[in-house]
Design a protein that fits this description.
Elements lengths: L2 E2 L7 E2 L7 E6 L2 E7 L2 E6 L14 E7 L2 E7 L10 E5 H4 L5 H19 L10 E3 L6 E3 L5 E2 L4 E10 L2 E7 L10 E4 L6 H13 L2 E13 L4 E12 L9 E7 L13 H13 L5
Parallel strand pairs: 3-7, 12-16
Antiparallel strand pairs: 1-6, 2-6, 3-4, 3-5, 4-5, 4-8, 6-7, 9-10, 10-11, 12-13, 12-14, 13-17, 15-16
């Protein structure tokens, strides 16, 4: 079963008498229960008399199978029972089933979006959830806000059977990854790929090909992945965002991102195309 968005669904889901799966957040962490199959989101029946959410709005997200999925955010003053706990979504990758993981990522973006736009940026009046569409509407000037997604590109650059990998200052330890960056207003995805590679490592590229995409809920981004070939220039890192970079053969890779990211999918693609041993 997959998580399915429902076009035009009301965000507001009535409290009481509900069924389905509940995605409950504190900060960036999801409330899960421990089962024999591993962590799982709560069922609606789990919430009866347990969470302090009676009479509050539940935010409809979509459906898994025939069951509604909805989200709610908790404050810091409530402690879960022993067999429940809050866990970061990054740690849940590979442990939570794909459909609940997709719903959890979407729900996190929605609750963070609602918190960031409690007041209208145009006139300062409070906003309210719209009905029949995923939107917020200002109670003063009727300005409408929709959930926002920040597009970003990520690219695997190949030269003579080697992959360009770089270490950014934000990475933990000695991890290297492929080049990525946010799209500027008025910029095409391909233009962004060329600019990011040029700015961060001083290289020129060509043969840019679409690879795939991945929603990235931690930053509210949509990662759009490409492959490309090196056409000119020598590596010259900016020493601002990128600390070091180099060309790596399939059998001689440094520490790389985990399987949950499309960055790793690009690296695995490179190994499958240019290496004799898969990682």
């Amino acid at each position: 079963m997959a998580f399915k968005f429902i076009p035009g669904i009301d965000y507001i889901y009535p409290s009481g008498g509900s069924s389905g799966q509940a995605f409950v957040y504190r900060g960036d962490r999801l409330l899960v229960k421990t089962t024999d199959q591993g962590p799982a989101p709560l069922a609606a029946d789990d919430l009866d008399g347990t969470l302090p959410i009676a009479g509050t709005q539940r935010l409809a997200l979509g459906r898994i199978g025939g069951e509604i999925c909805w989200a709610h955010r908790l404050g810091d003053d409530w402690q879960p029972p022993p067999d429940w706990h809050f866990e970061g979504l990054r740690n849940l990758f590979g442990r939570l089933a794909d459909a609940p993981m997709a719903a959890a990522g979407y729900g996190l973006q929605i609750v963070k979006w609602l918190e960031a736009h409690r007041f209208c940026g145009r006139c300062g009046a409070p906003t309210a959830l719209g009905r029949g569409a995923r939107m917020l509407q200002c109670t003063g000037c009727d300005h409408i806000l929709f959930p926002q997604v920040s597009p970003a590109v990520i690219v695997a650059v190949v030269s003579k059977g080697r992959l360009l990998l770089a270490r950014a200052g934000r990475f933990a330890g000695r991890m290297f990854s492929v080049i990525a960056g946010y799209v500027e207003p008025g910029e095409t995805l391909e233009e962004c790929v060329r600019r990011e590679v040029s700015e961060e490592v001083g290289l020129q590229i060509g043969r840019i090909r679409y690879f795939g995409s991945q929603p990235w809920p931690f930053t509210g981004s949509l990662m759009v992945a490409f492959t490309a070939m090196h056409t000119g220039g020598a590596i010259a890192v900016d020493h601002n965002e990128i600390l070091e970079a180099g060309w790596f053969a399939p059998q001689d890779l440094p520490e790389i991102p985990g399987k949950m990211s499309i960055a790793r999918q690009l690296i695995d693609w490179f190994v499958a195309q240019y290496g004799t041993n898969r990682i």
